[in-house]
């Protein structure tokens, strides 16, 4: 049994053929022409599909999942990635369905990239076997997805669990989405670096002044770098505690580039949880790093697509289909 997968982001468009145990049989990718016209972008997607279809395993294709940067609209099959300006309500599902090598009758399943990561972690990663989990991507932005009652919960439009846009500071900075004090504006890698720089931190010569460099400085005792991670941890703790109060989580999984900071992030985050998770049923929820890395989007897209087929990934619910 072979599942197809696409993972579309602002940097790369990746594709894979995945077997029913989550192993990548074939993988390919192209750079995303993120600032180019819509049809040029679609041409890159078609090129990835062409490469996948050239492999023998394509003949056994049973389903095809698409993970995309959001917002997405899974019911309409459209995408409007913030970091891909030419695609606004772009009919990606229909365009992929119309590719000449897409099998007749196969309808691709669309999910947001953070929901795909959640599906992957639930199938094969840190959330495997967990009934109620929040999986987060903390990177350039902050995204997330939910597993409720043992199944992926993408919501009506496919954006449920988007924890990055929970307001945690009523007087906080205005987020790119337009709301004040969002988690993303306080805890993303971009926000961590900006806060450290505003406090007077500077990256070492030749180093990029990003969240990874801030983490390295924090490990070396720089108080401004530590403060930036403390601020991020507080924002994450407030949002996680609020989510736990709403749906009674059993586990929180955090992946993405910022999570690579390890204890620099997780130690203050777990400490700060005590300030916000004060009700009995919200306390002591485990917070763990994601187990899957670069290919989580592809694995999750495959899992979401396969869910409607009764295959081994069927405990992961596919997004709603029109």
UniProtKB/TrEMBL annotation:
Gene3D superfamilies registered for this protein in UniProt: 3.30.420.40
Cross-referenced InterPro entries: ATPase_NBD, ROK, ROK_cs
SUPFAM superfamilies cross-referenced by the UniProt entry: Actin-like ATPase domain
Family under the similarity heading: Belongs to the ROK (NagC/XylR) family.
Record protein name field: ROK family protein
């Amino acid at each position: 049994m072979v599942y197809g997968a696409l993972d579309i982001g602002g940097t790369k468009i990746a594709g894979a053929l995945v077997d029913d145990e989550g192993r990548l049989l074939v993988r390919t990718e192209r750079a995303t022409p993120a600032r180019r016209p819509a049809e040029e972008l679609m041409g890159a997607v078609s090129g990835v599909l062409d490469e996948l279809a050239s492999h023998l395993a394509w003949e056994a294709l049973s389903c095809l999942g698409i993970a995309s940067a959001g917002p997405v609209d899974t019911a309409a099959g459209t995408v409007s990635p913030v970091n891909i300006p030419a695609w606004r309500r772009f009919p990606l599902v229909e365009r992929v369905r119309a590719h000449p090598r897409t099998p007749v009758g196969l309808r691709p399943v669309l999910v947001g990239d953070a929901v795909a990561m959640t599906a992957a972690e639930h199938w094969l990663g840190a959330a495997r076997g967990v009934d109620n989990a929040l999986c987060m991507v903390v990177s350039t932005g902050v995204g997330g997805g939910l597993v409720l009652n043992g199944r992926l919960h993408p919501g009506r439009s496919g954006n449920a669990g988007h924890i990055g846009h929970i307001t945690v500071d009523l007087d906080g900075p205005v987020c790119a989405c337009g709301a004040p004090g969002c988690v993303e504006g306080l805890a993303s890698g971009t926000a961590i670096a900006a806060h450290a720089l505003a406090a007077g931190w500077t990256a070492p010569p030749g180093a990029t002044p990003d969240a990874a460099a801030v983490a390295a400085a924090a490990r070396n005792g720089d108080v401004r770098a530590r403060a930036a991670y403390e601020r991020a941890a507080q924002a994450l703790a407030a949002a996680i505690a609020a989510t736990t109060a709403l749906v009674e989580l059993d586990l929180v999984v955090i992946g993405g580039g910022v999570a690579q900071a390890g204890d620099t992030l997780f130690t203050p985050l777990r400490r700060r949880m005590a300030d916000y998770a004060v009700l009995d049923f919200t306390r002591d929820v485990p917070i763990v790093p994601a187990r899957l890395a670069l290919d989580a989007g592809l694995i999750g897209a495959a899992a979401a697509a396969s869910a409607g087929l009764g295959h081994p990934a069927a405990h992961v619910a596919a997004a709603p289909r029109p």
